[in-house]
Amino acid sequence: xxxxxxxxxxxxxxxxxxxxxxxxxxxxxxxxxxxxxxxxxxxxxxxxxxxxxxxxxxxxxxxxxxxxxxxxxxxxxxxxxxxxxxxxxxxxxxxxxxxxxxxxxxxxxxxxxxxxxxxxxxxxxxxxxxxxxxxxxxxxxxxxxxxxxxxxxxxxxxxxxxxxxxxxxxxxxxxxxxxxxxxxxxxxxxxxxxxxxxxxxxxxxxxxxxxxxxxxxxxxxxxxxxxxxxxxxxxxxxxxxxxxxxxxxxxxxxxxxxxxxxxxxxxxxxxxxxxxxxxxxxxxxxxxxxxxxxxxxxxxxx
Length: 302
Fold this sequence. Notes:
Layout: H1 3-15, H2 18-25, H3 29-43, E1 48-51, E2 54-57, H4 59-86, E3 91-96, H5 102-114, E4 118-123, E5 139-142, E6 152-166, E7 176-177, E8 186-190, H6 199-206, E9 213-217, H7 220-228, E10 234-237, H8 242-245, E11 250-255, E12 261-268, H9 276-289, E13 297-298
Parallel strand pairs: 3-4, 3-5, 7-11, 8-9
Antiparallel strand pairs: 1-2, 5-12, 6-10, 6-11, 6-12, 6-13
Helix pairs in contact: 1-2, 1-4, 2-3
């Protein structure tokens, strides 16, 4: 098994069509079919089922797809690390956070302009993990939660939530809204997997909000599109509101009867053997956000 086989498998899985995948890979359909058959023979399991003209993943294939993507990502990360080290500058930084945090993206962009040889990976799905291994990250921004109880860090900010809706919706004519105004409306939420909906979903439940219909999407981009189209409204963090503010088809409104917030914290990898780029990034983030490092906050003490 080699990386070429894994990449071919991923392309077939994503397109569910051998002919289209072969065209994208610049190989003949028969060659690609033989490569997939060889991969299945090496693994000892079938990865696909045929449904008419489609070739779709079975349960074994779905599991192997996740593994294949992870393997190729790890190889790419290792390659970037080695290139950076061979140049004598830069390195790899892996950052975890609970969803898209636009100020963090701004911070990382500015840091990368000063350190152009640095490879950065931002994992915005840490809330879907049942256990956090801090050694996998150089920095984590995280909320309260059982998987984060063992972490010790600093207070980052209070994340505040607002209503976003189509600008033609009758409620958009009002400057502020209350949760009572949102009763029996259609709502859209981000859910990155089947068991971990975004905090906004749990927030609506805690406020006893009754909705007429729930829609779930897997990304912030789809969330914005649903709201732009007027299909539903939603709640967004003030840390991600910028892209909604900039869209003329979307109105962003404050909640007045209840101003829902949640605290976020930040922690950094602790190791006596931190690379220079890791120390530089830590110092940069602390200064950029004005983080108070005089008091650490850890575990149940939050």
